[in-house]
Amino acid sequence: MSYAKFHTNIQAAICPTRLIDSPLQLLAHGTDASFYRLIPKLVVKAADETDIQTLLKEAHKTKTPLTFRTAGTSLSGQAVTDSVLVKLGHDWHDYTIEQNGEIIRLQPGIIGARANQILKPYGRKIGPDPASIDSAMIGGIAANNASGMCCGTSQNSYQTLAGLRLILADGTLLDSRDPKSVHDFKIRKAALLKELSTIRQEIIEDPQLHETIKRKYKIKNTSGYGLNSFIDFEDPLDILLHLIIGSEGTLTFISEITYNTVIDPPYKSCALVIFNSIEQACLACTELKQVSVDAVELMDEASLRCMTDVPAVPNIIESGMVALLVDVRASSQNALSEKTTAVNQCLSSYELDYQFTKEMQTYANLWKIRKGLFPIVGANRDKGTSVIIEDVCFPLDQLAPATLDLQKLLLKYNYSKAIIFGHALEGNLHFVFTQSFNEQKEVLRYSAFMDELADLVCEKYDGSLKAEHGTGRNMAPFMELEWGVKAYALMKRIKKLFDPKSILNPEVIISENPKLHLENLKPIPPADELVDQCIECGFCESACPSKDLTLSPRQRIAVWREIKRQENAGVGIKPWLSEFQYQANDTCAADGMCATKCPVDIDTGKLIKQLRTSQHSTLTRSVAKFSANNFALSKSLIKTGLKLASPTGKYPKAAKNESLELPTGDGPKVIYFSSCLNSVLAPESGKSTPNSILSLLDKAGYQVLMPPNQKQLCCGMPYESKGFNDAAAIKLIELQESLLDLSEQGNIPIVCDNSPCSFHMLNTLTDQLRILDAASFFADKLDLLNIQKTQMPLLTFSVCSQQKAGESHALSKIAQACSKKVKSVEEIACCGFAGDRGFSHPELNESSLQEIRTQAQGCDKGYSTSRSCEIGLKTHSGIPFNSILQLLDECSSSL
């Protein structure tokens, strides 16, 4: 391998900003969800197929290994490398809908849940539905042949494949849906296709091997390469395409996959059914297999104990208890009722107490619990331990004894906190346990356990060591044991046929190293109690505004762990801290959106704000406190600065000094608290937000009060976000005292006109006060107004605080009441303006909103609920953005 030559050769063709080689960033980008740690020598953020072909051709010349990665949520070590890591992200998110949604073409960088969101208007979805679908990207879903809760083996990528666009190790491109590309490929790669046909014929002519392959795929199986493709298809091109599915980036690069989509039934219901024993539950699974159910998820006693504080889960868990989460879906309510009735009849002999729920929030919560079991266990592990999840499959009629044997094996090796759950209808079990790798005796314990596990699954029950998570590194040493000498020899032959120089993800699936699964184990040193629960699963990344600019929450935590490890080891950390400042601190929006995606609610922003606090000097703290104590003066100085700077076009206009007339209607009293943002920053156009709100309150007949010291008041969030906690406390106490007095100790509700401030007040002020966000307040009062809809097409953006409060529907409700043509911004969780960070680090706002201009096409104006966010939204969408309350005021009159 000549890595230096490879690096030199690609620099002329690949944009320098896409080549990452600093130690800090290599560690960050090299981190994935598995329990392995390999640090790449180079990370390349590939922009397109041309970049990929360049990389492959140079890798081929220099024998430099490449590993492709999308979201990095894979669990088995197939997405880590100590060579060159090629990352695919926002550059790879194009899609095409065909045949009214029956077919979808997807690039590898699209998140699975996003694909389903695109297909939702057609009543369809992609077949694969892994638990990580909200974070996992299409490239990984296809490369691992991921399945999930409902798709079983009938709707995975292998079964729903309609076409692939791929690039071979030597740079050859094939688009299987383009006749000319197929014609050229058949000529150029005739030898490859001929060899695939030869392998097929050898399998057909070997009854024992043929039967082995057929038997292995009677149950869920993603171990090794998909040898079933040689039995299922005769055309060598079809064999090739289906071999690529589940090959974990070891045979080709997938640049696009075309799926035959499946129907997404609109009516859904589920029930959590508690059994007294695993035998009873598994017997019920066998019977449920005969009726029309969409999913049956098994959760053992230990799993249930993790969830005893969750509604619908029993508070008291008795020894041996097991739960089945039974899910049914249908195209109509009548059909759904028929399905639930069939399930009830099927389970009637067990005399169980359960109930199907159609209530969507309860339904979603039950599935959220099931999907979050893996990270929840990881979060409760002892400090310094790794969390490991394995994924095996047994014949369904052997599921009960196999599960009991698995439980005994876990206890034998002292994995007493392990949990077992999985897709019971398929005999597919996941089990999660925690393991320290800090001492050699612990590594040996894990090694002995894995040896016995392989024997249990393969020898005793003739099962599969991997049902859906992919072989990776942790099961590669056991492939010959599972498949036998002949079948494994075919797999090695396939690898050599596609990748003769072994440059594509070497050591994954095929390895000659019997100890591979025991090497390069990831250390998880304690770093800070705020983030020590993190298992680096990556679920947080899709919500992070800085993920495409610098680091994601997972990466911030991984780097901070390494910094603390080096510090404890006495290693100089100054260079790391220096780079961490921009990569992790300066460009963190600290918006808390990562916590909304994290199964254990880790808010990485809290760590960053804590670090910001520690960096402040006595002088800067004193300045912040002076500003807080003289807040009216501070605001006046900011407005003066804006007036001087706004002609440059870099900053918004300062708000006018306007007198506000308070409505004196005879209706209920309400307190209006205007945020400092709306008193400092002018709207993009039209009436100010305070005047719009007072106008609306007047139309609705309210009697309005405002704090007499309004100009001096602030919720403290601008100080808190920068780590000035003392200054923040000054403002918070001052505001609370003022509002308690004015509200008659909480008897009068308080309406705030800026969603981030409303959310902050709601979470920091005393519960005695009734804090309402203005959008939510007026969304419930639309019947008090006479509203005339406009024909203007508009775009709405729900800011992060509104999402965290669960109040996004308020924005939509007002917008739809005011206009017949409403679009909502999709796939952007946070705009990245982050208060005033959009002024100091505009690149964060730009990166987060890189896709909004496309979404804004066809819209005349945009509306939101935070003035600072609206500034960034206008800058990058190309349309003016104002408060939704201004629109409501313009469209309404008194009844």
From TrEMBL:
Residues 36-264 form the FAD-binding PCMH-type domain. Its EC number is 1.1.2.4. Its cofactor is FAD. It comes from the Bacteria. PROSITE patterns: 4FE4S_FER_1 (PS00198), 4FE4S_FER_2 (PS51379), FAD_PCMH (PS51387). One of its GO terms (molecular function) is metal ion binding. Keywords: FAD, Flavoprotein, Iron, Iron-sulfur, Metal-binding, Oxidoreductase, Transit peptide. One of its GO terms (biological process) is lactate catabolic process. Belongs to the FAD-binding oxidoreductase/transferase type 4 family. It comes from Lentisphaera araneosa HTCC2155. It is an enzyme of class 1 (oxidoreductase). The keyword Iron applies. Residues 523-554 form the 4Fe-4S ferredoxin-type domain. This is D-lactate dehydrogenase (cytochrome). The keyword Aminoacyl-tRNA synthetase does not apply.
